Structures are given as C-alpha cells and as structure tokens.
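Z., the sequence and structure:
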Amino acid sequence: MTLVRMLARPMLSAIFVIQGARAIRNPDAFVPSAKPLTDRLVPSAKRLAPAAVADRVPEDPRTLVRLNGAVHLLGGLALATGVGRRAGAVALAASLVPTTLAGHPFWDEDDPAQRANQQIHCLKNICMMGGLLLAAVDTEGKPGLMWRASHGAKEARQAGRRMTRSARREARLARKSAEREAKLAAMLARHEARLAAKGSSPARFARAARRDARRAAKAAQPMIAKGAKAAKPVMERAGLSH
C-alpha cells in the first residue's frame, strides 16, 4: 500500500464510521428525516421482493436507520483498514443514495437559504460517492478481472495467429522439400536408366554422370544451407562457433 492510499482511505471513511456509530447509538435523531423516504421505499421494496424476503423487510424507521448506520460503520472500517476495502466502498456508495435522498432533499425546500444549504450537502454526498466508486475499482496497480479477461482473449487471438502462420510456413517448407526430393529422385532415375542402357560410349556416359551429379548437388544446396542455419544457434550456445 502506498502512502497516499494509506492516508486517503481513513480520510474518506472517517465520516461514515462516525455517523454510522451515532446512528446505531441514537437512531431517533435521524428518524424524522428518514421516515418520509422509508414510508415510500419500504412498500415498494416489499412489492418487488420475493414473498420469503418481503416478510423480513423491517418497516420500523428506527431499525432501518440502525441498519444503514451499521452499513456505514462496517463499510467505513473495511475501507480504512483495507480488509474488504473494495466491497466496503461499494456498500458505502450504495448506502449514500438513500442517505442523500432522506437527509438533503433540497428540492422540497421553499426557503432559498435552506435550499442552497441542502443543495451543497447533496453535492458533497455526490462527490463522496464518486470517491468511493474510485476506491471500489482501485486494484493497487494489480491487473483487475476485466483487464485479465480482455488481455487473455487478446493473447489467445495472437497465439492463434502465430500458430496459423507457423503452420503455413511449415506447409510451404514441406512442399519445397518434397519438390526437391522429387527432382533428386527423377535425376537418380534417369541416371539409373543410363546405367542400364550400356549402349552409349564411356565418355558420354561419364559426362552425363557428372552433369547429373552437378544437378543433384545444386538441388541439395538449399537444404544444406537451411540445415546449417538451423544448427548455427545450437553451435553458438554450445561454444563451438568461431
């Protein structure tokens, strides 16, 4: 952990730890501002949730305030200590939505001064939410899941292209080698045919043999050069090169 992260995380989480502990100890101070929001959200949540879950959703504003305070306290401690910091940051960012809607509804204020004050507090919460989202995606320089997935797919595509190029190159080399071998076989067959036909003079037969030998040597030169090129790195590693 860098010095910046070691200082920034407790600074960002301090307000959540303090306010979460206060909400747990004294929820009555937060009930008046939370009740209008809970009265609207709890019935909707019960309608959308499965029956088994809907029966367990609390309706008491004091209980809901304490639950929200517990999320703030635990999430703040997780972010400050670094243990489960990313999950804690996500939980804090999510909990800021009902907290902001319940605590700073500036759109309901008629007094211009109160409206401006609540608007400032609402914007502060939005700024904190942005910081929490940055903390949630912070991997401390390590590759994240999305990065590993995208680069793994990219490396797989590159490996596939390399294998395709290698297969094509090997096919071309195999085709050329087969053509050379076919030429050598044809030359040897002609030479054997001349040996079988003893009717020509010894001088012509010698010239034909030398001509076939030169052609065979010329056809074998690329294969010899390829073998020498492939053996050169091995000889250099073994210390046999001059």
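DSSP finds eight helices and no strands in the chain. The mean pLDDT is 80.

Let me know what you think.
H.
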